[in-house]
Amino acid sequence: MRANSRSGRPRSRHFDRAFALLTVSLLAACSASSGTSDTTGTAGTAGTGAAGTASTAGTTGTGGTGGSSGLPVCAGGAPTFGVCFVSDADVLPLPLPGNDAAGTRTNGATAATIMDVGIGTAPAQCESARAFGARGPSDWWFQAKTADNHLWTIGVRGLASAPLVAKSDSVTLDLDWHGTQISSYGPPKGHLQLSNAAATPLLWAGAASGNVGTDGPGWLTFMPGAPICRTTDPCDAGGYDVVFTVNSSRATLPPSGSATIGGYFVANGALIKGAAPPQCYDSYGEAFDAAAVKVP
Fold it and tell me: Is-cis flag, bond preceding 93, omega within 30?
């Protein structure tokens, strides 16, 4: 039993001692290597910092990609024309556009008679009422009484310099105007068209939003063309030129442009489309107005 017990204990061997010496040597080497590694590690930290700086520069570059198209910032500016209108049923001052969603209308194209025509500022406080385009003193004006016995006063500026109608002329007036696009959101929308007894359009004005597709009364249509400028407003997608087609003749106009197209003098405001990020309550874009008058 004792012999067995003695034989059960591990015995010291030569290679065990060699292994112990090797282990000590390796530990010493690792310790030295560890010091070197610390120094290398410090250099590595500096390298990591440099890489971080490069990453930050890359982020800035990505942010600037939106301006890489080379488009200029959209210039402001109101339309160069205006068409004011007011009915004898209106009570001035009118509600602000955002509170005037019901607007006013002739309930479709209706027969009317020209009651008076004049030069200069329009009567009935027309310039203080509703308007397509920009407000301002009228170049000329007319008053038309519709079949429902309402008297409409309409003033024109920046378009034809002389009246297109005369007193007692039989005409057709079609007007529909709302203070907002829908449910008190967006800019005003609507149209006004005056036609003579032969049903030839003499004057047309319209209000839409920058996100308009193809719009107009049929004989005249307009739609966005190519992007031409960028905006700083996150709710806007940028400015576009406008493609007009009048009696099969086509022309592209810049913001606040004008031209004679298909027998009509056409003018427009700036077309700014809307974007739809979460912080924007609507995506209608800015108000867009256009007008056309028959060239004599």
Answer: yes
Assigned token pair, 97: 């556009």
Instruction: Note the pLDDT tens digit of each residue in 100-119.
Output: 655 788 989 999 999 999 99
Cβ neighbors of 196 (< 8 A, separation 6 or more) are 165, 169, 170, 171, 172, 202
Regarding whether 235 and 96 lie in a shared domain, the answer is yes
pLDDT, residue 118, reads 97
Considering the domain boundaries, does residue 39 fall inside one? yes
Alpha helices in the chain (DSSP H): 2-7, 14-63
| Count of structural domains, the chain | 2
Q: Is residue 91 domain-shared with residue 202, that is, in the same domain?
A: yes
Give residue 51's domain range: 15-67
Q: How far apart are CA 249 and CA 265, in angstroms?
A: 12
Contact criterion met (CB below 8 Å) for 190 and 178: yes
Other beta carbons within 10 angstroms of residue 47's beta carbon come to 10
Burial 185-212 (b: 16+ CB within 10 A, else e): ebbbbbbbbbbeeeeebbbbbbbbbbbb
Q: 142 with 47, same domain?
A: no
In a domain, 74, yes or no: no
Using CA atoms, how far apart are residues 254 and 252, in angstroms rounded to an integer? 7
Beta strands 287-294 and 140-146, pairing class: unpaired
Is pTM, for the whole model, over 0.85? no
53-60 long-range contacts, CB within 8 A, separation 24+? none
Highest mean pLDDT among 26-40, 184-198, 232-246, 281-295: 232-246
Three-state DSSP at 250 gives strand
Question: Would you give the DSSP letter of residue 96?
Answer: P
More confident residue, 84 or 232: 84
Q: How many residues does the chain have?
A: 296
